């Protein structure tokens, strides 16, 4: 089974997907990690993130696999490197190249073909898994997303800077030529601005259960 979760930055997609994965026996597939892997490998090889041709060459030859539940880059888990400031600053640009998106999408589909997954990103329900059995669009107001991030960062970065960064990321996500953020009409829309993580997870789990009841699936196909 494939559960696809879309939504803008800072809506809690990854927390929700991780919790739902554990509760429903699904593998949590973080699509952003694949863009981060291409970005990290390109920076590591001295490739400019504006050089689409070289980025494509790096992404084409990169071995991206799931091993022991973690994404590996050429056989090595790089969790820490993928979350570095340098990757944070460059990944939106890298993910805007359509040819890179095609490569990442083919990795995601290959992995989804081997196991039951919950995948989260910006285009999971519309582009990558248009046939996903369950589709969720997680939204929240700019203000609540900024406040959550502010708390996560232990109030070390001023709220207005965080608010501006999120608004800028929203703009990039909305206006990307390919893979831009869209609401699939059949997706369950959840505005989490005034909901707790548990409440959102319950709504997603109910949606999965109702799909399984309709089709007679057990959740593990
Ligand atoms: O979710 P994240 O912060 O790890 O995502 C990293 C970057 O990749 C972010 O700029 C959005 C982009 N991304 C994307 O364009 N499409 C996806 N399916 C997932 C992430």
Q: Mind explaining what this structure looks like?
A:
With 221 residues, the protein is an alpha/beta fold. The protein has two domains: 1-26 and 117-208, Rossmann fold, CATH 3.40.50.300; 34-115, P-loop containing nucleotide triphosphate hydrolases (Rossmann fold), CATH 3.40.50.300. 53% of the residues lie in helices and 15% in strands. It is built from ten helices and eight strands. It has helices spanning 13-24, 31-44, 52-61, 79-82, 85-94, 98-112, 124-128, 142-152, 159-175, 197-215, and strands at residues 2-6, 27-30, 64-67, 70-73, 76-77, 117-121, 134-139, 188-191. The strands form two sheets. Strands 2-6-1-7-8 form a five-stranded parallel beta sheet. The protein has a three-stranded antiparallel beta sheet with strand order 3-4-5, covered by helices on one side. Strand 3 (64-67) and strand 4 (70-73) form a beta hairpin. Helix 2 (31-44) crosses helix 5 (85-94) and helix 3 (52-61) runs parallel beside helix 6. The longest helix has 19 residues, at 197-215. The radius of gyration is 17 Å and the shape is globular. The structure holds 2'-deoxycytidine-5'-monophosphate (DC).
Question: What is this entry, summarized?
Answer:
The chain has ten helices and eight strands. It has 221 residues and is an alpha/beta fold. It folds into two domains: 1-26 and 117-208, 3-Layer(aba) Sandwich (Rossmann fold), CATH 3.40.50; 34-115, Rossmann fold.
